[in-house]
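Bumping my old thread because nobody answered last time. Still need a sequence for this structure:
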C-alpha cells in the first residue's frame, strides 16, 4: 500500500508487478458496491417487496442505473485525481465548504455504523445469540482485524459470507413470480401515492447509492496505487460491482414480493428470511442469518473506514489500512472510535429492523450533498485532467444528482408538512 498524502500522486505500477496488480486493483468497486447490500439494504429491499409487492421494481431499475453512473465517477476521481474525495474537496473548495462536507459524512456514516451492528445483532439473534453478546464481541474483532491484523484478508472473509445472498436469484425463480407483473412494473412506473411509498423510495435510494460507497471507492482505488493507465480495469471493476449489486437488489425485491408481497412492512429478520424458503426450506433463517452476518460485518468495516479516509484526507493526515497505529493514529483511531460508538448505540433496546430502515432514510437525505461534490470533482479538468465526462455522460450524471436531490427535498417537505398537519 502507498502513502496517499495530498499533493503526492500515486506512483505508476511497473510492468513487473502488473500480473499481481490486477488482483490489487480489481476489488474496490466490488467491495464498495456490494457493501451497499448490507444489513440496511437487505432490510429495506425486503420490506419494500413485502409492503408494495412488485411496484418498486421500476425504482429498482432506475436506481441501479444511477449507481453505475455514480460508482464510475468515484472510480475516475480516485484514479485520475490521485486521492480520495475529501482530499480533493479540501484542495478544490473553501474551508467552510469542506467542513460542511465532513459534517454530512459524519452524520450519515455514524448512523450507518449503528445500523450495521444492528444487522450483526439481528443476524445472530436468529441463532439464539443475544445482541448484548454478539455486538461487543464483533466490535472487538473488527477493531483487532483492521488495527492490528490483516484487513484485506478479513474483507474477503466477510464478502464470502455475504455470498449467501446469491441464493436470492434462485429464490426469485423458485418462488414462481408473476413474470408479466415483473416486466410491467420494471419498465412502467407503478407508484403509490402515499407517504409510506415516498419514504420507502428515498430509503431505497439511500441504501443503494450510499455516500460511504463513493468515499471508499475513490480512496481505495487511490490507496491501491492505481494510475491513469489502470483506469480501464478500475472502471470495469466499478461498473461490474454496481451491476452485481443492482441485480441482487432486484432479485431480493422480486423474491420477497412473490413470497410475502402485500403483507405489510417487515418487523424482523425472521420475516425477511421467508423470501429464501423456496431455496432453503426450513433452513431459510440459517441461510439468511449467514448472509446478513457477512454483509453487516463487511459494511461495519467499510463504513467507518470510509469516514476515517474522508476525515484524514480533510486534514491531510496519513491514511492507509496497511499502516500501523503509530504511523496513522488519526485514521485508525477514528475507525476504532466509530466502531465503539456504533456498537454501543446498537445495544439500546429498540426494534433492530426498524432501526435499519430508519437509518437508510437519513442517509438518503444526505446522499445528494455528497453526490454534488462528486459531480463537480469528476468534471473539473484540474482534478481528472482530460478524463472529464463527455457531454452525454455529464448530462446523465447531473440528472442522477437532481433526481436524488428532488426525492430528498420532497421527503423533507412531506415530513415538515406532517408536523403541522398539512400532509
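Sorry it took so long. Here it is:
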Amino acid at each position: 500500500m502507498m502513502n496517499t498524502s495530498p499533493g503526492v500522486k500515486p506512483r505508476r505500477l511497473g510492468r513487473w508487478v502488473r500480473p499481481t496488480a490486477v488482483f490489487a486493483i480489481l476489488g474496490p468497486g466490488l467491495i464498495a458496491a456490494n457493501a451497499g447490500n448490507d444489513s440496511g439494504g437487505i432490510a429495506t429491499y425486503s420490506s419494500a417487496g413485502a409492503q408494495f409487492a412488485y411496484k418498486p421494481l421500476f425504482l429498482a431499475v432506475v436506481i441501479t442505473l444511477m449507481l453505475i453512473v455514480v460508482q464510475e465517477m468515484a472510480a475516475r476521481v480516485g484514479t485520475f485525481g490521485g486521492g480520495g474525495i475529501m482530499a480533493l474537496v479540501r484542495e478544490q473548495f473553501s474551508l467552510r465548504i469542506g467542513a460542511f462536507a465532513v459534517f454530512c459524512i459524519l452524520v450519515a456514516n455514524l448512523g450507518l455504523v449503528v445500523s450495521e451492528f444492528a444487522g450483526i445483532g439481528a443476524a445472530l439473534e436468529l441463532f439464539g445469540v443475544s445482541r448484548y453478546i454478539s455486538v461487543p464481541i464483533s466490535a472487538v474483532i473488527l477493531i483487532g482485524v483492521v488495527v492490528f491484523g490483516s484487513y484485506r484478508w478479513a474483507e474477503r472473509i466477510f464478502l464470502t459470507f455475504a455470498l449467501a445472498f446469491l441464493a436470492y436469484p434462485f429464490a426469485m425463480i423458485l418462488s414462481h413470480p408473476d413474470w408479466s407483473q415483473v416486466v410491467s412494473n420494471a419498465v412502467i412506473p407503478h407508484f403509490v401515492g402515499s407517504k409510506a411509498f415516498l419514504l420507502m423510495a428515498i430509503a431505497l435510494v439511500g441504501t443503494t447509492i450510499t455516500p460511504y460507497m463513493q468515499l471508499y471507492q475513490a480512496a481505495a482505488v487511490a490507496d491501491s496505487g492505481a494510475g491513469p493507465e489502470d483506469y480501464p480495469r478500475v472502471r470495469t471493476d466499478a461498473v461490474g460491482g454496481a451491476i452485481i449489486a443492482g441485480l441482487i437488489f432486484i432479485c431480493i425485491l422480486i423474491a420477497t414480493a412473490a413470497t410475502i408481497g402485500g403483507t405489510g412492512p417487515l418487523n424482523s429478520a425472521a420475516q425477511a428470511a421467508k423470501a429464501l424458503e423456496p431455496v432453503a426450506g426450513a433452513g431459510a433463517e440459517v441461510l439468511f442469518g449467514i448472509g446478513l452476518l457477512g454483509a453487516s460485518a463487511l459494511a461495519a468495516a467499510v463504513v467507518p473506514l470510509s469516514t476515517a479516509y474522508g476525515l484524514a484526507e480533510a486534514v491531510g493526515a496519513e491514511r492507509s489500512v496497511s499502516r500501523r497505529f503509530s504511523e496513522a493514529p488519526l485514521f485508525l483511531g477514528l475507525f476504532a472510535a466509530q466502531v465503539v460508538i456504533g456498537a454501543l448505540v446498537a445495544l439500546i433496546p429498540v426494534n433492530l429492523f426498524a432501526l435499519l430502515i430508519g437509518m437508510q432514510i437519513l442517509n438518503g437525505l444526505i446522499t445528494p450533498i455528497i453526490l454534488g461534490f462528486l459531480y463537480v470533482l469528476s468534471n473539473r479538468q484540474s482534478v481528472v485532467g482530460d478524463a472529464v465526462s463527455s457531454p452525454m455522460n455529464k448530462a446523465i450524471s447531473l440528472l442522477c444528482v437532481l433526481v436524488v436531490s428532488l426525492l430528498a427535498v420532497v421527503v423533507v417537505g412531506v415530513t415538515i408538512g406532517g408536523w403541522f398537519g398539512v400532509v
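The radius of gyration is 20 Å. Let me know if any region looks off to you.
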